[in-house]
Design brief:
alpha/beta
């Protein structure tokens, strides 16, 4: 068996053109076993599970990416460069930064601001703006409205650090400029999709609120975000 990449032990043809990207590998396992038919596991390297199956007859893969942009960058680079992925949708959690964004609401990240230095290293003379694929964003939004899901569209913040000594000033500045929520991966996903001419979208369920200090448990984050997964699967399979 010829393996193409370092971190994904899959053969050519094992991975679908459409790939869902949860950060948590156990969420990847849950999505595959709960929503997909005829599922096969193609990756177990470092416990970062990857699966391919079918949803309503459409071939779909689900690949865990780990936490943070450096980790996601490894898996998305390999999916795009070696396995010819065409549509990449991050399905993750986030922290709400504005009062009207509630626990378990869905956010479609139109763009992703970032504290990371990754794009500063790529672009020495310009500030690159990582944005979602418009067609994918538009269709997902319409599907969410059709299903009457609570959905928000706008700018999010992709953070490098989960724990920080004091980021209250930065958070306040972000909210002044309408940033909806904070997570840790979207900016790198959008940048790599632009580089390799793929379609990408980050779809998030609000797991906690910086405004109210409400939060969900790890088990809830793994298993109860079914509306978001259904929304994404139904959108990508109707393309």
């Amino acid at each position: 068996m010829f393996i193409l990449s370092t971190h994904i032990n899959a053969k050519i043809g094992d991975i679908a053109e459409i790939v869902l990207l949860p950060g948590d590998p156990m969420r990847a396992k849950y999505i595959a076993e709960t929503f997909l038919d005829d599922v096969k596991c193609y990756n177990t390297v470092r416990g970062m599970f990857g699966y391919t199956g079918y949803f309503k007859g459409k071939r779909i893969s689900v690949q865990g990416t780990g936490m943070g942009m450096p980790s996601l960058s490894i898996y998305v680079n390999e999916l795009l460069r070696f396995y010819d992925a065409k549509v990449l949708v991050r399905v993750g959690s986030c922290g709400a930064m504005l009062p009207h964004v509630k626990i378990r609401d869905i956010i479609l990240a139109q763009a992703a601001s970032s504290t990371s230095n990754m794009n500063n290293r790529r672009f020495s003379e310009v500030t690159f703006a990582p944005i979602a694929d418009f067609d994918l964003l538009y269709r997902t939004y319409n599907k969410a409205v059709e299903k009457e899901y609570p959905v928000h569209v706008g700018n999010i913040l992709s953070e490098d650090s989960f724990y920080d000594d004091d980021n209250s000033g930065r958070n306040h500045k972000m909210t002044e400029y309408g940033v909806l929520a904070v997570e840790m991966e979207a900016a790198e996903l959008y940048t790599l999709a632009a580089r390799y001419h793929a379609k990408a979208l980050c779809v998030l369920t609000v797991s906690d609120s910086i405004v109210t200090s409400e939060e969900t448990s790890a088990e809830e984050r793994e298993k109860t975000f079914n509306e978001m997964i259904t929304l994404v699967l139904e959108t990508v399979t109707e393309a």
